[in-house]
Structures are given as structure tokens and as C-alpha cells.
Prior knowledge:
The structure holds 2 protein chains of 2 kinds.
Chain A: E1 4-13, E2 16-26, E3 31-35, H1 42-50, E4 57-62, E5 65-66, H2 72-75, E6 78-80, H3 92-102, H4 107-120, H5 136-148, E7 154-158, H6 166-183, E8 186-191, H7 194-200, E9 203-208, E10 211-216, H8 218-223, H9 228-233, E11 238-245, E12 251-255, E13 258-262, E14 272-277, E15 283-285, E16 292-301, E17 305-312, E18 315-322, E19 334-338, E20 345-348, H10 352-356
Chain B: H1 6-29, H2 47-53, H3 56-89, H4 95-103, H5 110-124, H6 130-154, H7 159-166, H8 171-199, H9 203-208, H10 216-226, H11 230-263
Helix pairs in contact in B: 1-11, 2-11, 3-6, 3-8, 3-10, 6-8, 7-8, 8-11
Adenosine-5'-diphosphate (ADP) binds next to α1 of chain A.
Amino acid sequence: MGFLQLEQVSKLYGEFAAVRDFDLEIERGEFISLLGPSGCGKTTTLQMIAGLVTPTNGRITLDGRDITREKPARRGLGVVFQSYALFPHMTVAQNVAFGLEMRKVAKAERDRQVAEILSLVKLTSLADRYPREMSGGQRQRVAIARALVIKPPVLLLDEPLSNLDAKLREEMQFELRRIQRVVGITTIMVTHDQAEALSISDRVVVMEGGKITQVDHPYSLYEHPKNNFISSFVGKSNFLAARAMNEATGVSLRVDNTDLKIPATGSYPGGELCLSVRPEKIRLTDPAGAMLHGPVSSRYFLGNHWLLSVSTPAGEISVAVANLGAPPPSEGDITGLTWNIEECRVLAAEQESALQS
Amino acid sequence: MQKNGPFALAFHTLIVLFVLAPLIVVCLVAFTPQNTLSLPWDGLSLRWFAAVFHHPDFVASFWNSARLALFSATISTMLAVPSALAITRYSFRGRDALNALFLSPLIIPHLVIGVAFLRLFSFIGATGSFGWLVAAHVMVIMPYALRLILAALNGMDLSAEMAARTLGAGEWTVFRRITFPMLLPGISGGWLLAFINSFDELTMSIFVTAPSTVTLPVRMYMYASESIDPMMAAVSTLMIALTGVTMIILDRLFGLDQLLVGKG
Ligand SMILES: Nc1ncnc2c1ncn2[C@@H]1O[C@H](COP(=O)(O)OP(=O)(O)O)[C@@H](O)[C@H]1O
Ligand SMILES: [Mg+2]
């Protein structure tokens, strides 16, 4: 049984289900990300774990103890809010000490623990500042310190990096992971940024419309997305319409009049299918004998790679070409495209258009 | 931020001058050495200020007004805080009606309220009672306190309270340590606004004060209806100064509020 466990947890607002039948088992010390577009129920899920929102149905247990109806004050989980929710009328040290004060920790011990945690988040010199006198990144670290100082069994982070600018965001991402490793705390982070989720989590929970669509390790999630939504939301992907042809040895797919042999990884329902290929898995080749070919319709230089769009009979295909010194074909040039058959995913064709919009 | 052009600047200066002109004239007249309402062309004098301080009725009325404003502003603020919390934080039957009821004294003419209280007070034998006078003032000034506190509550980030709860604070502790301090600029502003409104309330007070509880505005009104001399200007100047100082404090508090809520 998991350290933190959610069983069939739902939250209804009237008829509307913000979260539906959420099942998840989290091990001690794990770093989990809840990933999904805005409005998919991530915050609601996090707040149900924190005790700030009461679930309509289901059960939440922590270390075997049922906490479904317990008050947030009694759960003692560390929560970092999207807005950081610092107390504006208290200094950094007072903010951080608040949780210890509530636990009636003696003043001397309190000061010691506050100093210790502030040094962990590298804010020792700013202990007497007020939140309004600090930058976004500093405030975020105060919020983390305030949540961690009470030694909570679980740390809950609601889009902790979304208010930071791009550069700081990348830095703080790894800083967050460092702090989590040092403390060894079970952590759940909400994010709508797939790069963030993939780079620092042990497992990623993808959510859509209040439901879990896939739970996996970042690498498997990227390489084996379960549906179109995930492969387009986690990283970028090209979708090609395909048809399954019956064959004993595997499944052969017909994409734009070319038969592609795909190793059978499951049985595909006959009829409409969809092939998902990531832009970085596609290679440029000679048009003759390529899987697809067509003119380059746009070409962007992105530093470490080029992003090409090629107009093929199967539609516009994005291709990412690593910058290895020689520039790729320019706009208007005809190029061929090819990829290893094992590196594309076969998905059911359902809801593709709805999800891509 | 956009800079104002010279036209806009001149226009604004004119409006400010137009608004301030009567006040400036009154303040100047207060310093006249003459016996008539005239501008102090021939030297400044503080004789009319001295006259105010030697007029026992005015001094007594000033203290009446100050005491009345202090009590009624404090009581209305104490009532406004829980009312504002109830209106913004909870949904219950009749919430909108309650909100409208609390704000209605802003809409009903004070003349009407004054007449109503006059009838009520003589009916229950409360004429001349300081306590009932306070009650009447609380009713007409509470909307001002309530409006400011409601605004402060609506602008407040609820997640700070949630954070306190997750850190182990109970409901009362959350209010005492988080909500109240975060609302303090709004509460102080509401108190000051209520204080000013009570201090210069005339229309209703004319009906409900008795000889022993005459407030400063009522005293001035009574005095001015019999004779006009520069002492009135001196009293007015003192009131303008007092209100001005309060307004400056109000602005200070709200500047602070902006800092805490807006850019925080
Ligand atoms: N108190 C509430 N009342 C009604 N609907 C709500 C409430 N809180 C959230 N919702 C709805 O639930 C859905 C999920 O919200 P949320 O969990 O905040 O999404 P996310 O954090 O993934 O962006 C949204 O559609 C939102 O409008
Ligand atoms: Mg959210």
C-alpha cells in the first residue's frame, strides 16, 4: 500500500465534476507531478490532499491513516501556493516561524530551525525583509521554507514556478529537486508545463478534464504516450492518418499509399488509426525511396536545432534537425523524410481533431 | 504612466482652485482683526481663535462632538468587521438583503432619519441621552466603515488564510494573526471615515441633540442663524484643519494598503 493513497476521489461542484475517480498511489520520497492544461482539476486535487477542499466521494489515506475528513491544520502537510500566499505583514523569519509557533515550539528552538531551513533555501541574509521587498524567486523560496520547516510528511506545490521568468524558472526547477532530495520529502507538484514535469519528477500524472489519462515515468510517458492528447501535450508530435491492413506477422499500416510494417505491439482495431511521430525522430533523406517527401514550407533556426515544416501528401510534418554545422534544406527545396518504424506510436484515431485544437 | 498635457494641467488646477476657493477665503477671514467678515488686509490676528476657546458653549460642544465621534466610529467599526466578513465569506439566505440594509443609511436622507429618531426618542423617553445619540450616529456612519472594510476584504488574497490553516492555525488564530492584520489598513481607514462623518454630521443631529448634547456643527448652525462674526470663520478653520489632518492620515494608510495589496 502506498504512503499517500487516493482512492476513487471525486469533487463535484453541482453537476460539474472538477475531479473524477482519481486513483493514485504514491510511495514515500517520490516526486510526483500532476500535469495537465489549465482547468483540468490539478489545483482541486492538490487542495483535497491538503484538506482545503472536501472531496465529494472517495478516500485519502496517509501512511495508513484515513485523512479524508481531517482539518488541514491536523494533517500537517506542507503547501506552497501558486501566489506563494506569504503573510505580507510578517518578515521572512516570522513567516517561516509561523508553523513552528502553532506547534508551540520554544523560541530558541524555533530560531534554530528557522535559521537552518533559511540556509537550505539560501535566504539567510534576507531573514528580516518583508515579502514586498523581495523578488519572485526569493518569495518562492520563502514559501518553500515555510512549508518545509514544520517537517511535513508530504510537500504539495501548486505551480510553484509559473510566476517566474523563463531563466529563473529553469534554475529553480533544479533547485527544487535539490531541496527535495536533501530533505527526502514525498512531493506532489502541480504544473501545466510538460518540460518542467518531465525534467524533475519520478512519475508524471497526466490529467485531462478532471480524470487521470496516464501515470508513468517521464521517459516512458514521452516515448509511449497512451493517446493523442498526451503525445501532443507532452512534447510535440506529428499525427498521420493511417489504416490497418491485416497481416499475420504484424500490423501493416497504409500511410499515403505507402505500406509501413509496424511491429505488432498490440492488436489494432481495423479501420482508422493514427500514427504519432515526434519531430526529433524524423530524418531528412533523399526524396527517392523516402517514406514521405515534399517541399520545405518553413524553416526556423532555434540555436541548438532547426525546426522545419515539410508539406507532404500526408499533411504538414514538423521535423527537428540537430544543428550539426551544415544547414538543412531551405524553404522550397524538396526533401524526403524517414524514421525508424519502432519509433512511432500507433494510436486509435478517435477524438484526434478535438484534442489537437 | 502617461503625462498630463499643459491643457489638462491648467484645467485641473482651475477645478482644484474652484473647489478650494471658499475654504481658503474662510481660513483667511478667520485671521482678521476686524469685527466683520472681512479679509485680513490690515494685518493678521488670532483674536477670533481666542474667542472660540473662551466661548464655553463652543468648547463644550467640541468635546461633545469629539466624544460622540470617538464612540460611534469605534462601535460602527466593531460592527462593520463581522458584518463585512459575513457578507463576503459566507453565503446565506438574505445576504443581499442584509448588505442593502447595512448600506441603506447612505441613501435615505439624513433629514428623514433625523425626524424618525426624534419621534422615537421622545416616544421611549431617550431625549438628551448621550448613549442614544451614539446609537443614532452609529446607524448613519456605519455604511462608510463597512464600505471600506468590504473593499479591503474583496481585495484580500484568501490563500494567505489557507496557508495559515495548513500550518496548523485554528479559525480564531487565523483571524487574529492573519485576516485582521491584513485588513488593518482598511479597518483604520473605515474608522477614520466614520469618525469624520460623525464629527461633521449636522442634518440628523439637529433633531436628536438636546441642550446638554449639542454637537459642534449644531452649535455652529445655531450660532450662525443668530449672528455672523469672524468667530464662525475661526471655528470653521479649526474644523478644516482637523479634517485635513485626518484625510492625510487616511491617504497615508491607503497608500500603505496599495503597497500591501496591490504590489505586495
Ligand atoms: N469553488 C469552485 N466552484 C465551482 N467550480 C470550481 C471551483 N473551483 C474550481 N472549479 C472548477 O473546477 C475546474 C478545475 O479547477 P482547478 O482544479 O483550479 O484547475 P487547474 O488547477 O487544473 O487549472 C475548473 O473548471 C474550475 O472552474
Ligand atoms: Mg490551478
